[in-house]
Amino acid sequence: MADSLADIAAQAGAHPIHASQGQVMFRPEDPCQGFITLRRGSLRVALTSAGGREIVLYRVRPGEVCLQTFSCLVEHKHYAAEGVAEEEVDALLVPPEVFDRLMAENERFRSAVLGSVAARFSDFERVVETLAFTGLEARVAEALLRRAGASGVVSATHEGLAAEIGSAREAVSRQLGLFARQGLVELARGRVVLKRRGALSRLAHPDV
């Protein structure tokens, strides 16, 4: 899907764009400049409450669709969330009029976009289910496992993990401290090293 979206976008006259790590690519109330498809990197999309608490909605990687951008283009409205380059991003920007033409006339592009949009809704379902039905211990454990990868190291601050699960930084710090005392993780500045993945997995999925 990544190649088909990017290749079709390039052939249709999309403009290359670049964002360095940490750069804000769009903010709430920004007008949508066009459809973005990533060639490299990762885009984090998040909402911030009036009180300043952030929650990560989803991440966009090559071949995936930013649901915020799709919604803004289809409904002709401004952004409601913030998009930040979590890693250095190389992407293509398809102007709105070209996006509309591709959706109407190019079956491969339309199928790839709509398929990714459908998959993206599962991310929202996960967020809602996690906030509504899952305790803090399980949410922190699941976030650590999701972010660690093969290395077993999570490069994130306590504040970043709190945003990941929609909780307060203080609560996440207390839970991480408890995990450390139990020997499940090792804490360092800006990172968490997973020591006992199996035990964390059982905490994250107690009913499995």
Give the strand content: 15-25%
Largest sheet, in brief, is: 4 strands, antiparallel
Q: Tally of extended strands?
A: 10
Provide the gyration radius in Å.
19 Å
What's the arrangement of strands in the largest beta sheet? Answer: 2-6-4-5
Shape, per Cα inertia axes: elongated
Order of helices and strands: HEEEEEHEEHHHEHHEEH
- Overall mean pLDDT stands at 87
Distance between the termini: 32 Å
Structural class: alpha+beta
Poorly predicted runs are: none
Total DSSP helices: 8
- Roughly how much helix do the residues carry, as a percent range? 40-55%
Task: Give your account of this protein's structure.
The chain is α+β, with helices and mostly antiparallel strands and 208 residues long. Helices cover 47% and strands 23% of the residues. It contains eight helices and ten strands. Strands 2-6-4-5 form a four-stranded antiparallel sheet. Strands 1-7-3 form a three-stranded antiparallel sheet. Strands 8-10-9 form a three-stranded antiparallel sheet. Strand 4 and strand 5 form a beta hairpin. The protein is elongated and about 55 Å long. The mean pLDDT is 87.
Write the layout of secondary structure elements.
Blueprint: H1 2-11, E1 15-19, E2 24-26, E3 35-40, E4 43-48, E5 54-60, H2 67-75, E6 82-85, E7 89-94, H3 96-105, H4 107-133, H5 136-148, E8 153-154, H6 158-165, H7 169-181, E9 185-188, E10 191-194, H8 197-204
Antiparallel strand pairs: 1-7, 2-6, 3-7, 4-5, 4-6, 8-10, 9-10
Helix pairs in contact: 1-4, 3-4, 5-6, 5-8, 6-7
